Structures are given as structure tokens and as C-alpha cells.
User: Fold these one by one.
Assistant:
Number 1:
Amino acid sequence: MRPFLSVLVLGVGLGAAPYVLPPLQSASAPRASVATIYASLCANCHGPTLQGGQGPSLVDAEWKHGDTDADIARVIREGVAGTPMLPFRAALTDLQIRAMVIHVREAQESARLGTLPPAALPLPARIESERHAFRTEVLADGLETPWGIEFLPDGALLVSERPGRLRIIREGQVLPPISGVPAVWVEQDGGLFDIAVHPRFAENGWVYLAFSETGAETGSSSTRIIRGTLRGNALVDQVTIFRPAPALYWNNNSHFGARLLFDRDGYLFFSIGDRGHMADAQDLASPYGKLHRVHDDGRVPSDNPFVGRAGAVASIWSYGHRNQQGLAIDPRNGDLYATEHGPRGGDELNLVRKGRNYGWPIITYGMNDNGTPLTDRTEQDGLEQPVVYWTPSIAVSGIDFYTGSRFPRWANDLFVTALAGQQLRRLEIRDGRVTHQELLLRGSGRVRDVRVGPDGLIYVAFNGPGLIVRLSPAD
Ligand code: HEC
């Protein structure tokens, strides 16, 4: 059987020509959700849950007419001559047909894996997997929505909790919250996000935090990045690394980002989501819907792609992003990977290159949350394709490459966490392409972040309940 997601060849176009946003839904387009359309046009033959009837099952992974999204879309559009499967091109727009393909993929995936019960805990103590058997061990519990985890050079673990606490876990002991962490805005997606530890932390003690804060206008908020010096259990000498203009603090609480990552050259990358204003992702004058790159003191490197372009935010490294919540560097070649929360059915892993446009919201594999179409375009010249996308969405979050020696058969694999999908995945990546995926953990709670420790073990942050779990070899 084919893998249940599509692996795509990378990037078509180069450059960053200005794009005009297409009308996402023409005024006359019907607003019916895809579930409603399915029930009225398809269910009498393919069954109410897509299990089949007079027509074949659409969830059994058997595809007589081809198993790609494009094949399924073609059958819906053109029908199958000489069978009751009539063409729907007159009844459905291309946008609706794309949404129908997502609907089919979602149903196929839940038929394959079953619907997720609430977190099944405790985690199994020993898990067999394709290449390694491993043990799971709860290192810390009782945390509230742990968001980012990062190691200090002495092997202690820093963990951020979304309500605004930063803690050290040392030798299995969870220390009291670090004092001096700025007040954070805890609404909906908001709060304390990721942590980065400066590559020369041993000399300078610098720790970077991303969080949402409220602005001058009541209820407004945005993402801010600061640097502080960790002294004992206090964060002192804080400086702002990035803060949007006051006018850009908006009255919504979604898509703040914000992952932080130092690359090998000591540049700090940080992601900020589109803040629910999707057109911003295509606007170089807005910091939203972008990946940014700065020096460790917040200055903009002179070789950033949009330095000197009139009106552009100079810290932008890449654009056309929705909400990126995972960043990692491939240890083999320095390539930068980012996971991105797509709309429903459109989660992505991207190989992020300088100055490129990743297409949101012009192209996407997803649809609106309510099952109405967003766009029928999944690719376009000049817009980058994801390395892989997940339909249905798994709510993809933190990632890390395996660089340790304790799991030799996982060398250089990418570990991917997911919230709604409650999973930890292992991806094998060869020459910028995902060649294999494996689910290592599923159904034990939302998984927010993953880090390979200096000890070569794998540390995973679960949300609801808030746990840090350590994976160690059992074979
Ligand atoms: C009147 C019955 C009928 C209706 C209504 C109908 N289908 Fe079909 N459909 C069929 C039959 C029968 C086939 C198998 C055709 C064949 O023999 O290859 C089929 C095939 C398909 C396939 C290809 C399956 C494969 O194995 O490749 C897809 C996808 C599909 N239908 C989707 C839909 C969708 C989506 C709708 C609603 C918009 C729909 N169908 C409405 C009867 C129907």
C-alpha cells in the first residue's frame, strides 16, 4: 500500500515576483461545506461515511483510477464513462473538487487509524518500532502546556510553559520558575512560546524567548522576541530582539508563531505566523507570515534577501507562510526545515531557502476549517512546494534531527511532533525528499516539541497532560 500522504518533488520556481492575491472565493461561489455537498451528491452511492454502497468505498486505499490527489480530482470532475459515476464538472467548481479530495483523504485516514480517544496514558513503557525498540520514561509531569524545550551545555533542560513560566529541569528535578520572565499575553494561542540558548551560552549566559504580549490598545497583541542573561534562577539584563510596530498589535489571538533557532553560523531565525490576516503572508511590508533572520543582538544581517528593498521588513528570510511551529537544521548539509500549520488538510514541511515564497494563501493543499474551499491551487510557478504535506492535518509542531549515537539506525532522521494528531513521527530524508515516514507514538496526548539531548536520548514535550518524556534504547 502506498504511504497515506503525498511526497512531492521540491520547488518549481525561483525569485520573488510580486503576486496579486486571487479572489479566494468569488461572490457567487456557494458557501456549502464539503460535508454537506458530499451528503447531497455522493452519499447515496458511496455511503454516508464513504464506506461504499452502490459505488466503491473511498476509504479503503484501493484506487482503481489512480491514488494521487490529482487522480481523485479527475474522476470527480470527469466521471468514469459507462458507469454510474457521472462527471461532476458542471455541479462542482474546481475549488469544491479540491475540498472534496481533502474530505476523502480525511475520511480515509480516520478509517485507517480509527478516531483518537482522549489521551491514552500512561505511555507504553516499551515500544517496538521499525528500527529500534525504545523505552519511554516520564521525566517531569504537572507542567502546564510545555511549549519549547532546550538544553543548556551542562545537560540541564530549559522548558517554557505557555502561561508564562520558564523552568530548569536538572537531574530529573523540576526547579521553581525562573524569575524575571516578562509578563505574557495568555489568550487562545498566546503565551510564552519557544526558547533558544545562545551557541556560546557558557560564556555569555544568553537565553532567547518568544512570547505574545499585549499592546497599547486594550485586547491587542503581537509576538515579541527578547534576550536575557540567565544568572542562577533569574533572567536578567533583558534586551528586545524583535518587536513589531505598535500599530501592528492586532485584536486577535491566533498564529503568533513562534519558534526560535540558531543556525551553524550563529544567526537567529524566528517564525511569526500570519496573525489570522492571511494576505499579510504575501506582503513584505508586514512581519507576519514570515521566517526572520537576525544577528544575536537583533541587528539585520546585510545579506538578508530584502535588505534595501523599499518598504520591506529587512529581517525577512522567507515568506508566504501561515504559522510555522517547528525549525531544524539538517546536520548533513545545513539545510533549514520548517513545519507549518496549514489550513484544514494542508499541514506542511518546507525546506526553507533564502528569499523564497512558500505560497500561502495563494496555494495550499488545505481548505477552510468549516469545510468550505479556500483555493483550488496547490501549485504555481514561482511558489515553493512543500517537501511533504499532511492531508488530513495533524497540527504539526516542533521538529529536530537525530544527531546522537544512542539510536544509530535513526541517524539524521527528522523527528516531527503533532498536536491534534497526537503523534511523534520519524521521517527519513534523502537529498531534500522524504523517503519514508513512521509513526513512533500516537494517541498519548498532544505533542508539542522534541529535542535530541546531548546524551543522545530523545526528549518529548506533551501537552494535556503536560509531560516531558525521555525515549531511550531498549534493544
Ligand atoms: C450514482 C452513483 C454515484 C454517485 C452519485 C457518485 N459516484 Fe463516485 N463512483 C460510482 C461508481 C459506480 C464508481 C466506480 C466506477 C468504476 O467502475 O470504475 C465511482 C467511482 C468514484 C471514484 C473513483 C474510485 C477509484 O477506485 O478510483 C471516486 C473518487 C468517486 N467515485 C467519488 C465520487 C464523489 C466525490 C461523488 C460525489 C460528488 C461521487 N463519486 C458520486 C458511483 C457514484
Note: Residues 126-473 form a domain with the Neuraminidase fold (CATH 2.120.10.30).
Number 2:
Amino acid sequence: MAVILVVDDEPLQRGILKTILDSEGYETYTAASGKEALAIAKKIHPEIILTDLKMEGMDGIELLEAIPKEPFEPSIIIITAHGTISSAVEAVKKGAFDYLTKPIDKDTLLLIIRRAVERASLLKENIHLQRELFDKFKIEGIIGKSAKMQKPIEVIKRIAPSTATVLIRGESGTGKELIAKAIHYNSPRRIKPFTAINCAAIPDNLFESELFGYEPGAFTGAVSRKEGLFQITNGGTLFLDEIGDLSLPMQSKLLRTLQDKEIRRLGGKETIKVDVRIITATNKDLEKELAMKNFRDDLYYRLKVVTIDLPPLRERTEDIPELVNFFINKYNREFGKRIKSTEPAALKILSEYHWPGNIRQLETVIERAVLMNDRGTITARDIQDELPSGRPAGQLNYDIPDEGIDFENLEKELIQKAMIKAGGVATKAARLLGMSYKTFIYRLEKFNLSSSSAKNGKME
Ligand SMILES: Nc1ncnc2c1ncn2[C@@H]1O[C@H](COP(=O)(O)OP(=O)(O)OP(=O)(O)O)[C@@H](O)[C@H]1O
Ligand SMILES: [Mg+2]
């Protein structure tokens, strides 16, 4: 049951309130002054404080202002005499939960108390969730003992408490969002919201209304006012994922907001000050986008005050055993399994794989291996079953340029390269490309390439 503190300098009133609340099963304490209330509150942490407004010494409003908000904020209900409702309203403005007027009606009292109890439990729940988030995103919880991860982790520790804008770069699945959250939850902003939006997934008009909000009538379908992410996140951190995909017009709008630190809702006149830390992420080569004039350089320099480069998993294979254990534990819990170990041979396969999808892909592989396993040990076989078969895909390191590619030529080049690498042995070259021998020979003939000319590495 909720703990309630009744504060009143009139002993009779105190007694009546305590009797009513006790009989409803609440754990009720009393204090005869604001000062005494403060002292008791520090010991019992009441969820609810029911206080008279007018008291000698510290009055109800002063008590409201002085009461500690930690470990959670109590809901304060102010009791006023008939003539002083305006001060009760003032108290509510200052953060009181509600007010009651004298003479106190028992049903109204109990109704307000019940609502306050509900709010208190929500607040407590929230605090609980927040604690979980703090723990989850502790920097110590980021797996990365490898040399390649040490630098980013050092940078994160150093810059998290500041308000510096951060650009996180890394291939897909390297942990960009995780790092963004770690920065937020290790900064003084942690008690304010962390929000995220993916710039690639949203068309411009929607992006604008998501970020800045709108007024009713701003466009067809805008029936009521909507607050944008900038306002919702005020005081917190906004994570803009895949920033490299933001259109040029949106880049200008974002830049202006970062410069002015204020926004205007679509269709609105009023400008609203916002204090939002921006973290962005990209797996694109932004410098290349700059050169191609797809990305504004003034915005780029504003975003990259701090840059964090996350290495691909294949370059930090020392971390694989710890990551594997971490994911085994996670999925043991989720699926009610009891897997205790991983065969060395399985770890070897995992360390040699090239992980185009990085940690996210590793997580999926372990998730499935845990789900399918009933023996308590993950074997090489389990891992082989879960890794994509055939040749690893996505390893070639080039983008499709804007002017497009000549696929036939590319195919020919790959076949030539495979033949050279295979020392002219067609069966081996076919295997390198993940093709059947028949398909490979067909292509070899199609391009007029012969296996003999490959041997000396000089194909026509
Ligand atoms: N160092 C790490 N320790 C533990 N888990 C990690 C680590 N890095 C990433 N992960 C986990 O891997 C998954 C992918 O990470 P995340 O979503 O942050 O990657 P991303 O770089 O944002 O990927 P994408 O580019 O595809 O959006 C998440 O489940 C995340 O919790
Ligand atoms: Mg991501």
C-alpha cells in the first residue's frame, strides 16, 4: 500500500485525515509542520504528501518546493480554506498534483488519493525502467576489448557528458545505434528523452512534420496540433540515423535549426527554443557525397564535431568469443535454454567468417543456434547450419556509381579474376564464384575466355 504523509499544524484535522486514510489501508504518517514533514519524508519516502497550505513557518508551497525529488517525486496534494483557491491554483502550477478545499469531503479525498497513488506507481515504474536503461547502456556493458574498439570507447567516455554533436560511422550492424544510446545514457541528459529517426526511410514532407511538428490546418489531414521530435526531445538527444540519405532541402532545414536552436511548427508562426543534442550515423562515405554535392559541407562540419568510427566485426575478431557468450546468455534467458559452452571449432568458424552484417548478423546466428540446440553446447555443425551457404556475399568493396555499371563487363572481370586466382583450374574458379562447373564453363565460353590463357595470368 502507498505511503502517505499528512502535514497539518492543527492536531484535530491531522487526526481525522489519518483515521480516514488508515481505515482505507494506507500507511499514514503525520507531521505538525513543514520542517518536520521534510525530516520525516527523508526517512519514509512517501508516495503522497497531503499538506495544509497555510501553516506557521514553512507553508504548503514552500514545502512543495523543498521536498526532495529523489529517489522519486512524491505527489503533493494541497489543502486550502475556501477563500484561498488562487494560491491552490498557484501550487498546482508549481507542480502540486491537485488540491482539496476545506471542509474536506471524504469521497473527494479518497478519489484524489487513488489518482495520486496511480500516478505514483507509474512514476516508480518509469524510474525502474530508466534504471534498467542506464544499466543496459553502461559503457562498461559495451563489448569491445579489442584494440580496434578501445579508441571509440575512449572517445565515448570523454565526450558523452558534453553536448558535442557526434557523427558515428560504421558498416551496417556495427553498433551505431547502441553507441548513440550509450552516449545519451552516460550524459546529464539521461533523464530526458532519447529519440531516433531514420532519414532514409521517410519521405521529405513526413520527415519535416516528424521533426518540427505542425499546427492544425498546416496541410490536408493536419487536424490537430502535433509536436515534432525536436520539441519532444527538448533537453535530450535526437539520433538521426542514415544521415547520408537526407535530401538537400531537408539538410538546409536541419542546418538552420542547429544554428538557431529554435524551430517552428509547419503552419505555425511562433518560434520555439529547443535544446537538443544531435547524434548522427551513416554507413555512407559522406566525404564522397560532399564531393558529389549530395551533402552540404556546412552541415557536414557541424555534425562531425566528434566522429566515432566503428570497426567492422571482421577486424575485431578477438571480441567474438565474448560477444558469443553475451548473446548465448541473452537467448538462454529468452528461450529458457541452458547452453553453457561453445565448441572451439565453432568459435574458429565464427572467427574466420567475414560478417557482412557485423554484430547484428552474429546475434542472429547465435539466436538461431541457441533456439535449435538441445545439447548444452554449440557445435561447429550448429554454426555451419546457420551461416549463409555458398560464397560469402557483399564482400566486394564497391558501390554502384550514379552513371550505372556495365554488368557484362563486371561479370567478365570477375570470371577472369577467379580464373587467375584459381591458377586456371576451372573447377576451382567455379567454386570461388559459388557457381556450378557447368554454369561457369558456359560463362567462360560466352566471354570467349579459355582456361589455358588464365594460367599465365594474361587473359585477353
Ligand atoms: N559492442 C556490442 N556489444 C554488445 N552488443 C552489441 C554491440 N554492438 C552492437 N551490438 C548489438 O548488435 C545489434 C546491432 O547494433 P545496432 O543496431 O546498434 O547497429 P547499427 O550500426 O545501428 O546497424 P544498422 O546500420 O544496420 O542500423 C544490436 O542488437 C546491438 O545491441
Ligand atoms: Mg542502426
Note: The chain has four domains: 3-132, 150-309, 314-386, 407-455.
Number 3:
Amino acid sequence: MHKLPNGVTFFERGWLSSNNVLIQDADQALLVDTGHWTHANQTASLVASVLNDRPLTAVVNTHLHSDHCGGNAFLQSVYPSLHTFIPPGLAAFVDDWDADALTYTATGQHCPTFSRSGSLSNGDTFTVGHSVWQAHSAPGHDPHSLVFFQEDDGILISADALWENGFGVVFPEIEGVDAFDEVQATLEIIEQLKPKIVLPGHGAAFTDVKGALARAKSRLAQFRGSAEKHAMYAAKVLLKFKLLDVQRIKYLDLCAWANAAGYLQLLQTKYAHASDFDGWVLDLCKSLEKSGACAINEQYIVNIN
Ligand SMILES: [Zn+2]
């Protein structure tokens, strides 16, 4: 594995919490993404394990999904002088904290209220030590997402725009907004940047960027060929995320939660005409069980892995 330069630390988390990247020099320490709110203590401990008594000076979010900025509020309480930078697209909704506009209501997810100091837009840079990190717009998975590239060492922080095997759910598509072209364009931008190592939002860091891009493009082609395939993937990801959060839930409670999550309502209405809502949720759970992602034990759905 390609060695990261001094001052760059990659925390590989799981699927509930996004990965985090700590970038520091003698004067500043900046964390890209902060994980899920239920893991905020763990995120703060990871940061402190590297910084010791030095303070974290800034948080930068690639995008505002709950698994990427859920630790913002807690870190702001731990480090009162912390600066927080987010992409500009949803900034007004952070300032007035609008959980609907921030999609936390539609995903059925929670994110503790945090404040921001400023925004980072496409083309903006931040410099830490001798390294310049540039923000690039990476719409598709999320219309407002950014990725960050440090050219000298060829390091790309790719968020959910590119993983070793695929990319995140294309959320605008759930709302009926075409966004597969944006996914394609973002993959092309990444290709042009020619990163030597990618630090993704989830999963391990990787250096076979060509292979990952090829897998992502083939996945995209499958989704383009079948909107239903993407819809089922999206529904299962939302359910699995809930299971990762709660670990074990009564099937009927899961149905009630899903019923209140606008995205799952939309997906069921559009793609599951044949079954009633609770039956559709059970079908999805069975499919997750088949792939080893959960177990159905009498009236409970239990997370696995
Ligand atoms: Zn995301």
C-alpha cells in the first residue's frame, strides 16, 4: 500500500460512520468528515490519539449525509474554537437547521444540529504544511458533494463518489431527478486527476484506481439499464443503515420507521406496486438476509456485520 505522507492520517471506520482523514502541520489540524453521531466519542478519541493535547482546528465536510457530519456537533463541543466548513449547496439549511431540506427526514436518519464557519466550493483550496488540497465538485451520489485532491502526492479524498467497489446510492434518482450523468461526469473528473491513492468515504484506501473506476462504470451501466435495480439497492442501503444503527429492531417497528422515511415511501410507491408497504419491507429484509446482511428471528430483524 502506498504510504501516506507525514501529517496525513486515514481512519478507516465502517459503514455507519464514514472514514475520516486527519491532516495536520505544526499549526493546524483539520479533519475531513466526522462519522455518525452515535460514534462521535470514538471519532473524538481517534483524533485525540493522534493530536494528544493539541486542538483540532477545523472540520471539513465532503457532504452533509448523517454518516459524514454526524460528529460535527460533538467535536464543536470538545473544541470550542473549531472552524467548520461545508459545501455551499445546503449552507442556508444548516444555518437555519432544516432537517427536511437536509434530507434527514427523508432518509429517516438523525444528525445533531451543528453550526458552520464557512463554505468550501469547487476550486477552493486549503493548505496544510506544504500541501495544497483542492475541492472538486462531485455530484451524483449527492448533488452538493465535494472531493479533495492533493496533487503533489496524488491523494484523493473521494467521499461516496468512488469506493474500491462502486459508489454511494444516487440519491437524486430516488426523487426522480436524473443524476446518472453526474455520476459519470464525476468519475471522469476523478480519472483526469489521476490519483495514486484514494481515501474513500467507506472501505479501505486503495491504489488500483483504474480498476475501481472500471468497476464503478460497470455498476453505473447496470443502474442506467435498470432504474429498478438502483431503486432496490437504495432501499436496501437505507434499511441496512438503520440496522447498523439500532442493531436489532422489531419488524413492525422497522416498518413504522420506514413508513415515516420519505425516500422509502417514494421507492415503494414507484417500484413495488404489487405489494403493500410492510410486505415490501419484509421482502427487502429477506433479500438482505439472503446476502448475509441481517437475520430474521421471529418478530425481530437483527443486523449482521
Ligand atoms: Zn453520502
Note: The CA atoms of residues 30 and 58 lie 5 Å apart.
Number 4:
Amino acid sequence: MNIVIAGGTGFVGQHVSQLLLREGHSVIVLSRNAKRGTPTDASQAQHIQWDGCTQGPWTQVCEGADVVINLSGASIADQRWTPSRKRELIDSRVISTRTLGQAIAGWKTKPHTFLSASGVGYYGDQRSKIVDETSPRGDGFLADLCLEWENAAQHIEASGIRVLEVRFGMVLGLDGGALPKMMFPFQWFLGGPVLPGTQYVSWIHQLDLARLILFLITHPSIRGPVNAVAPDAVTMKDFCRALGKAMKRPSWFPVPEFVLKIALGELSTMLTTGQRAQPQKALSAGFSFTYSTIQEALNAISQPSA
Ligand SMILES: NC(=O)c1ccc[n+]([C@@H]2O[C@H](COP(=O)([O-])OP(=O)(O)OC[C@H]3O[C@@H](n4cnc5c(N)ncnc54)[C@H](OP(=O)(O)O)[C@@H]3O)[C@@H](O)[C@H]2O)c1
């Protein structure tokens, strides 16, 4: 298949591209800085320039793709959520989705599938309540952001193509996402859970996320929202205990909520609240996770050669 990945230069996008290329697909990455990734041979993705908000020569290059994936978005956890940062977080996702939708609407040959990233933040703070794809949206900034993002993706169905909104949990890997930041204090024997510790962490190993995305684009009966999380959501306390065990470090030093609130403002809610999400649709469709428990996933990441 010919697959376009907007935002494919990021943490998730690189893993997805590598898997798709290994499986014999061809990949075009849309990037705001395409020069960074000029391919040297056909086993690499072709990088094409776009700005994420306007049509341009990229639309002709991408016409004829079988699948379009959007992973674009300014980083959620890099900066405090000031009003202007919140606008940027929303616009970089919603406008890039709409821009891809407008391009697709104008193509004579349309892709069969559009896949958009979203997040389990859609469900808001659910404490220990189990949520699946049928659960309603929750409250808070991330829930509102996910709703706007998913609505923009849903509009693309009007072009007569299948749309998937894939709600990622915390994606675990060494080369991006939250895990390397969480591992840092553990390396110095200063690791511990963010309190209250009872909040749930829904997570997925980066390899399983890439495999799930391939599974979804090759299973045409699945559509709409899909939780991209392992079946083993755990409390923050258990997550940090497993991380300490994997790194052979103690998990002794809890981080009080008020300290995070002072340091990060509203962004701290990403760590002090959580979701206990289940991958109901993926499991029902027969997807099997390589890493289905948190200890297996963190051991594999922390001790890759073990
Ligand atoms: N990683 C996680 O744990 C996680 C969890 C839930 C949801 N997600 C979502 O999944 C998607 C991919 O995650 P990721 O971890 O791969 O993110 P990432 O590493 O930050 O990559 C996102 C890509 O988006 C593009 N981008 C950045 N700022 C942008 C802006 N202002 N406008 C348009 N494009 C912009 C960048 O590509 P160029 O610079 O090449 O244009 C970047 O490589 C994101 O939307 C993220 O919110 C991730």
C-alpha cells in the first residue's frame, strides 16, 4: 500500500514508518521540515514539505495514497498550558486534520482509510472506572481537545472513506513520549509515584502501537474510535513500582500533587489524574499484544538485551 503519514517525523511516526516499510509498504512523510529526512534509498520514507495548514504541491504528490494517517500536533507536555499554548495544541491537530480532509475531498482517487491520532484523555478523569470505546467523553482541556480533533477527522467520512480515531494511551519507548522523563529520577535513585498514586495509567508499548496501526489499516471492518492501550492499565503506584523493578532501582520518593501543580500548572493534571481504558475493539477484532503487562513492557524497554 501507499501510505501518507503527516507528523511521521515524530516518536510514534518513526516507529510506524519503520514497521510499514519493513512490511513492504511505501511511505510518504509530510513534515514542516522535510529536508531533515531526505531518503537515500527506497527502503526509507519519502519526506515531503507541508505546513500543516495550507494546500500546496504536497497534495499532488500524495494523491493516489491508499491510507492517510495524521500524527501531527505540538507536544502536549513540553510547556505550561497557557491560553496561547492551548490554542496551539488544538490548532496543530484540528487544522492539520482539516487540511488533509480538504486535500482528500479534492482527489479523484481517494484513500480507503483515514487514521487520526487521538488520546485516552478523551475520557477525562475517570478514577478507577473502566472505560472502553463506548464510554462518554469526560471533562477537562484534553477531553475537549480530543473531541475537536476527532470531530475534524469524522468530517472526512463525508468523502466516502473509512475513518479511525485512535485514542493512544501513554506510548512507552526510550526515544520519545513521557517515559524517558519518568525514568530520569529513577536513574538517580530518586524515583517514585506522582500522588495520589491511585490514578490509572493506560499505556502501550511503541512496538504494539505500530503493530496495532498496521492491524487497523488492514482490517476494513473496524471504524470509528479505537483505544490504543494494552489490556493492563495500572495505577501510578504500580506503574512506578514496575519501572523501579525494571531499572533495578527503588520507587521510594513520591511526588506530591501540590509540587507538580506549582511546577506545571494545569498540565500537572495529566499526571495526577488518569484513565483505566480497555482496548475493547482491538481485542474483539483479534489483535494480540506482544506486551500485555506493564512489567513485560518496562523490562523490554529498560533491559533491551536481557
Ligand atoms: N506519545 C504519546 O504518549 C501520545 C499519547 C497520546 C496521544 N499522542 C498523540 O499522537 C501524536 C503523535 O505523538 P508523538 O509522540 O509521535 O508526537 P511527536 O513526537 O511530538 O511528533 C508529532 C509531530 O507533529 C509535528 N508537529 C509538531 N508541532 C506541530 C505543529 N505546531 N503543527 C503541525 N505539526 C506539528 C512534528 O512533525 P514536523 O516537525 O516534521 O512537521 C512532529 O514530529 C500526537 O498528536 C500526540 O498528541 C501521543
Note: Residues 7, 9-13, 31-33, 52, 71-76, 88, 92-93, 96, 117, 119, 168, 170-171, 176-177 surround NAP (CB under 6 Å).
